[in-house]
Amino acid sequence: MAAARGRRLRPLRGACVAAALAGLLAPALPARASASDASSSLTLTSITPVVDATGASSGSATIRGRLTNDGSTTLENPAVSVLLGEAEMTREGIDDWAKGDARVTGSALDREIATSRLVPGQSTTFELEVDGADLLPGRSWGAAPISVQSGQDQVHTFLGIHRAKEYEPLKMLWGVPVTLPSSNQLWAAPGDSRTRAWQAAAGPGSDLAQIASSAPRPGDLWLLDPLLLPDAVPADDTGLSRGEREVREDLARDLAAELDPDRTAVLPEADADVAAAAESDAARTLVRPRVTGGQEAAEALGARSDIAWPADDLIAGDRSAALERVYGSQPTVLVPRTALTDTAFTPDAFQTSRGGTPLLVSDPELSAVVGSLREDDDAVLATQRLVADSASVLGDLPGTSRTLLVVPPRSARPDPQAYRAMREAVADIPWTARGTLASPRATAPESPEQEIDIPDTLEDPPEPVLTDARARRVVADIATRRSVATVRADGPQWQRAVAASQVQLTSARWRSSQWHFRVLASRLHRDVTATGRQLEVASGEVNFFADTGRLQITVRNTSDVELHDLQVRLDPGSPILRIDGDPEPITVGPQSRRTVTVQASALAPGRVPIEVEVTDPKGRALAEPAELRVRVSPTGGWIYWGVALVALASVAFGTWRTVRRRPTPAAPADPEDS
């Protein structure tokens, strides 16, 4: 190992030459501050990813950064140094080193006194240089662990070294999700709050706007929600604000202009949860049309739509069969390496399972690194992590051409600029190259040893947000929406707005934001059932004293929308009262009532409950039925009984009088008298 480089002092303003020389000749002083009050932090702003040592020179790497005094006392002569670390350069060892914070002791590869005095809250820059000869001597290429340290802080990272090309470059393919964030405010009732949500999600400066500002580069793979394209932009008559429509129109236009079909995979509409659809018939009923919509959009664009991206990152033989039913044919399933039976080896991204399922296998370690990108500066350490991980993967089979796929976790939304910088760093790493989705779909391996195994069945997969019970409720709400739209005066406009929001309930993004799903689902349920609650039928008791006559029912509309083509249906609970034909369809204005008259016939006296229901033209109930209790007493009945009784009484009375007035016959004469 080369000796540590001499300390370099920055010129200090106002210092005399003698003082500067004295500072150079004297040993550097440690930062003077009490252990309890001293605190500093390091931020690395740039690193040479890989030292180029292919020529006569050993090459060097430059590390630049910022040292900040986070404590309450002034730091005197704070120094920053870089040292070689000790780590096993396996995937697990690389991850442990990157996450660790243990200080490294020993000789520094370089050291610099950042400034003479650093007051609390102040920052200063530093620059370190590492000679390539100090990195992996005797190795043709690879990555070494290093630690950049100040008096109170240390950052673990890696440096690459390249002396000779003795490998087949590792192709890098990067998934770039082009999807909406998981916010229910995007689908709230039209208004300022919803407009602000769209401006934050898709307006200037947003993540989506930054992605749409340039076409996917070689090695990029857009994972696109087709509902962000121009055909899905809402019309002017939907009641949405002008601000929202402009944001959505601008984003759709930019995406359409920059889209490259060869570097785009179209997802189901709304990035629907295909994993939930594989587990539930009701969810499949909702998701299948979204898959069809994505397939139609992809066909129009000339892009692929046969990539299924399960939100739970799982695959098995039974799920593969279920996804085939959802897609109509066997899709290629995008899952991380952890979904496979054997996860120790990093395979090529393009695979086929032993059962014949085409797979796109992503790298979980680098995918997690991408998911942690929050700001521009994060790209520096992420790039060095790429240097180390790619070297480790390549070292397994350096002579075999392979593709490594990196896709951010669904729950993450990496900073677009940092992610782009990490992807572009592929050009600075000699042993990596840009991959492409145009690689032929993996075919069946030639030998059993090459086959990729997946589980036969999924045991206890995580419960989706779109459970079977919730899916059935959404299915019922969709049926209610379609029914209500046929009687509302603003039916077409209202239905388009509600349907667009209901589609979003199928999205996989709610898995990381269940609260947002519940809020949206509850609001939409209230919206589609509101008309039924605002439609009232008067109930109570009615007397019907006639053989035939009319019954009157009052229907009240308490909504602010006119309702038309309402059908009133009466269902007597007893055959002693007959309804003679249904009434004609009625129209009830907003905040008004309408009386409906029906003809009825009484067949016998008694009490009859009548269920009164208001339906759409196809007979689907719109509101809760009301009960009308009718006391039936047909006029003809009691008259006939009265006449009969009078007749009987007359007959009886006449008979009685006849019997009473009959004369007594004379007694015969006594024979003796004669």
What can you see in these coordinates?
It is a single chain. This protein has 674 residues and is of the alpha/beta class. It is built from 15 helices and 29 strands. It has three domains: 8-162, Immunoglobulins (Immunoglobulin-like), CATH 2.60.40; 170-445, 7-stranded beta/alpha barrel, CATH 3.20.110.10; 535-636, Sandwich (Immunoglobulin-like), CATH 2.60.40.10. Helices cover 30% and strands 25% of the residues. It has a six-stranded mixed β-sheet with strand order 1-7-6-10-11-3. Strands 12, 13, 14, 19 and 20 form a five-stranded parallel β-sheet that branches. Strands 22-29-28-24-26 form a five-stranded mixed β-sheet, with no helix packed on it. The longest helix has 27 residues, at 635-661. Mean pLDDT is 89; it is low at 1-36, 440-449 and 666-674.
Please specify the SSE layout and strand pairing.
Blueprint lengths: L7 E2 L7 H9 L14 E8 L2 E3 L7 E10 L5 E2 L2 E6 L6 H9 L10 E4 L3 E2 L4 E9 L9 E9 L4 E9 L7 E9 L13 H11 L4 H6 L7 E5 L17 H17 L5 E3 L7 H6 L1 H21 L5 E2 L8 H11 L4 E5 L13 E3 L5 E5 L1 H8 L6 H19 L5 E5 L9 H9 L7 E3 L33 H18 L5 H14 L9 H20 L1 E3 L2 E5 L3 E10 L5 E10 L4 E3 L6 E3 L3 E11 L3 E10 L10 E7 L2 H27 L13
Parallel strand pairs: 1-7, 3-11, 12-13, 12-19, 12-20, 13-14, 15-16, 16-18, 22-29
Antiparallel strand pairs: 2-4, 4-9, 5-8, 6-7, 6-10, 10-11, 17-18, 21-23, 23-27, 24-26, 24-28, 25-27, 28-29
Helix pairs in contact: 3-5, 7-12, 9-10, 10-11, 12-13, 12-14
